[in-house]
Amino acid sequence: MANNSYNSKDILVLEGLDAVRLRPGMYIGTTGSKGMHHLLWEIVDNSIDEISNGYGNKIEIIMHKDNSITVCDNGRGIPVDKHPKLHVSGVEVVFTQLHAGGKFNNENYAYSGGLHGVGASVANALSEWLEVTVYKEGFEYNIKFASIEKTKGKVSGGVPQTDLIKVGKTKLTGTKVTFLPDKRIFFDEKFDFEIISKRAKELAFLNKNIIIELKDENQLDENGNVKSVVFNYKNGLKDFITYLNEGQTTLYKEPIYIEGSSDVVQLTLAIQHTTGYSETICSYVNNIPTSEGGTHETGLKSALTRAFNDIARNNALLKEKDANLLGEDFREGIVVILAIKMKNVQFEGQTKTKLGNPEAKQEVENIVYNALMDYSLTKQSKSVITEIVNKGKNAAKARLAAKHAKELTRKKNSVDSYNLVGKLSSCTGKNPKLNELFIVEGDSAGGTAKQGRDRSFQAILPLKGKPLNVEKKRLNQVLENEEIKTIISAIGAGIGNDFNIQNIKYDKVIILADADQDGAHIRAILLTFFYRYMRSLITEGHVYIGIAPLYRIYKRNFEKYVYDEADLNKVIKECGVGYQVQRYKGLGEMNNDQLWETTLDPSNRVLVQVSIEDAAEAEIMVTTLMGDNIEARKAYITENANFNKVDTMLDKIGASNERRKK
Predict the structure, then answer these.
(1) Is the entire prediction scored with pTM above 0.85?
(2) Which of 454, 516, 601, 628 is catalytic?
(3) Active-site residue 15, yes or no?
């Protein structure tokens, strides 16, 4: 019962870093794997900021066996002198004070990804221990922090164990930070070599000539040495776009490369069109990926549309009577990497996924437009411009055909209200925020799911065969596919540019497929469709993968379901002698009660929430899985699809495992 008296003594005042430990999600988003890696990115971003501003050229990341991790750079080193107001070393201030750092003015860092001044201190607050070594002005300094239990049950994080100690002389410069994420916050999460190497590679692309070395003491190479990889790209974004387009057919060999600046932004841009139909824009601000775009992307798109139309008319590729092409026409098949640096960045939220600075739009538009107009005057641009404009004209024809098809369909039987009788088993609940749609592989599993579900909030849509691979089709062809039309109609929010997230009929769209190669392919096809034509359904957290068990271990008074091979022997040992094993080769082999208990029941099921952590890597995965290279797709699925629990390919796209902790 609430306390009827409410006085000043009831107001909780959190000291130091206690607020971070009390509400870690406010600072790192989640206490799962993504949040734990976020701690690492905050420390790495500080090192990158040093190098981006001209101090040092190398970063070393070392994964240790106890799940601690080290980040070392050869920058200037964090200040070690006493802070004039707080009377402790600059190192202690940076790691113990929220909103403290050298990035709030432009004197020490012209451009910075870490703008909130909480990164280092949050990493410290959520670590079991953290150690900082600074190499500066000929000396080595060291300080250690730890999370300690001050009163019973209350833990304070990031408490200094000593003052900053001068260790001795050195010729090195820079900062080394080693920390161990606190298991009381992150439980059994482990740092992942693949996740870290992806981000390290991305940073190396964005900062040409930087050297980033990643070592994993948990793994040995073929020579018995600690596994190590070095990322270093001399051509920066040119190398990046070549990497993204590997395996694709491009319209022109050399990408369009632009560098420009104003008083507000510094900009680098790489553009290359492929023969495909999808649009790919990967944008970054001060090395931070802006997966949700923002004002810089808006300015970029305006510049591309205006410049390509003007260039087309200047070169008589568009006749006087012809209407201008739309931006989406010129962006069909385009791959773009946009990286800007600017001061006083306004990201939307601590996770920094969308740029909000209004001035960035006009600055980016002006720089890109003028650079493209200058490029169009060069000799090598003629064939490139012709290819781009011709592709745009073909895209415009397809767009008009798709529009006509949609209008025709609306007259007969609208794709938005496609006849779902006999296809969709809808739920009775009228609140979309509570409702769930299960897209199920096959009629057999669909029938079981219909019987096992809670029809008050769970709808079932069985698929008859594999849906269309939309990666190889234009929108007008996509709209002709029966299975795709049923999905569009069931979700109820449109498609492509007409998709409106506010109109979705279900808060959760859950893909439920068998744990085999066909099931993995169906998941990949559906994720590709959502990624290309309903992307905000993913970015706003509405798409999930349902994970069904592989085994049922049972005997009298004992029953447990096993979701991966790793747990099988453990459960068998727990069960003891006299047990029986039921192997589920497909969803249809379960009865409706079993499917409810293991896969449909919200209190007991296993779901993987799909998200886009890294747009560049997402594009590579989609291209690999859904592109023309069949052998590459087969090899990837065989090597990476974990049919026992969570697909590695979902992690590549960016998936957050919401599985309950057992």
Answers:
(1) no
(2) 516
(3) no
Q: Which of 441, 471, 597, 617 is catalytic?
A: 441
The residue from 189, 328, 483, 514 that is catalytic is 514
CATH topology for the 18-231 domain: Heat Shock Protein 90 (3.30.565)
Q: Is the dihedral of CA 282, 283, 286, 288 positive or negative?
A: negative
Where are the domains positioned within the chain? 18-231, 237-401, 414-549+584-657
Q: Are 67 and 222 in contact (CB under 8 A)?
A: no
Task: Say whether 454 is catalytic.
Answer: no
The strand order across the sheet containing 334-342 reads: 256-261, 265-273, 334-342, 280-285, 288-289
- What are the tens digits of pLDDT across the range 76-99? 999 999 888 878 898 998 898 875
In this prediction, residues 241-249 reach a mean pLDDT of 89
Ranges assigned E (strand) in 464-524: 508-512
**Given the residues 221, 518, 540, 574, the one annotated as active site:** 518
Structure tokens at 346: 């306004």
Joined together, the tokens standing for residue 52 give 């981006």
514 given a catalytic annotation: yes
Tokens of 141: 């300094």
Check the CA dihedral 191-195-196-199 and report its sign: negative
Cα of 641 vs its chain's centroid, Å: 19
Count the Cβ atoms, other than its own, within 10 Å of residue 348: 13
Say which amino acid occupies 572. Answer: I
Mean pLDDT computed over every residue of the chain: 84
Task: Indicate the class that CATH gives domain 414-549+584-657.
Answer: alpha beta
Active-site residue, 516 included: yes
The CATH code for residues 237-401 is 3.30.230.10
Tokens 């039921």, residue located: 582
89 beta partners = 82
**pLDDT tens-digit series, residues 337-394:** 999 999 888 887 555 678 999 999 999 999 999 999 999 999 999 999 999 999 999 9
- CA-closest candidate to residue 41, choices 364, 307, 289, 231: 289
204 contacts 240 by C-beta, under 8 angstroms? no
Q: Which two tokens stand for residue 145?
A: 């922090």
